[in-house]
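Box 3.1 A note on notation
Throughout this textbook, protein chains are presented in two layers. The first layer is the amino acid sequence; the second is a token string describing backbone geometry. Keep the layers aligned when reading.
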Amino acid sequence: MTDPLIRSNLDGLPPPRRGKVRDVYDLGDELLIVASDRISAYDHVLRPGIPGKGKILTQLSNYWFERLAAIAPHHLLATDTRDFPVSLAPHVEDLAGRSVLVRKTAVVPFECVARGFLAGSGFRDYTATGAVCGLSLPAGLRRADRLASPLFTPATKATTGHDENVGLAVLARALGPELTERLRRLTLALYTAGAEHAEASGMLLADTKFEFGLVGGELLLIDEALTPDSSRFWDASAWQPGTEPVSYDKQYVRNWLDQSGWDHESPPPELPGEVVQGTLDRYIEAFERLTGRAPEL
């Protein structure tokens, strides 16, 4: 395996399918997902990586999968390398803490997004149209306002470029009304449970995305769950509607990139040491506040 900051390379296995931050190995009936320490923003993979990020987010996802299992079954088969197939034995040192063995599913080709606060693209949409993804909201709302009830705002799963928000009618045409309603209810139930736990931990879950897959007729929660890469977490004590809240997600990196003068098209600038460390500190603090323990790095 090469430096996990860059990419994994497991001898004896077929080449992985590489995402922006994770490598996925097809083991036949199962998949091995390896979380690197790469970090992406604005559809670019940045350099350097964030040391330990892959382990932090893998362990946080595993925590949530277990905590939310009563609401949604998940795809995890094994999270401890001692339970991995014998063929992976030569790689257990590199895989420990940053990899999971999962069931193969027929992936639902949409991101299932839940929003409990007005932020990000939702706030931009509201400012321009008075609605979020076609869902009308009362006039006069401010950035970071809590919504009267969480919204389900699905999006396409773009392999390149940006995901695009879509309405329920698009899902219903693609997936059928029954599966669309199952996804809506499940997404909002998972968001509500996650938001309640986060708030009890002193954090606000502004929005998050879930991904699902089907095995037969069973709908499984897959990919990752409620991490700083897939969610917008805020410090509850510093939350003040009308301002940009203190966050524990990639917004810290995005803000630095925006202030650097980068045009979002050319190769991005290298992250300075203080931004790398600041990002790592935020990820660790989010993990500790949400789980009540330190990550195993």
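The mean pLDDT is 93. Residues 177-200 form the longest helix (24 residues).
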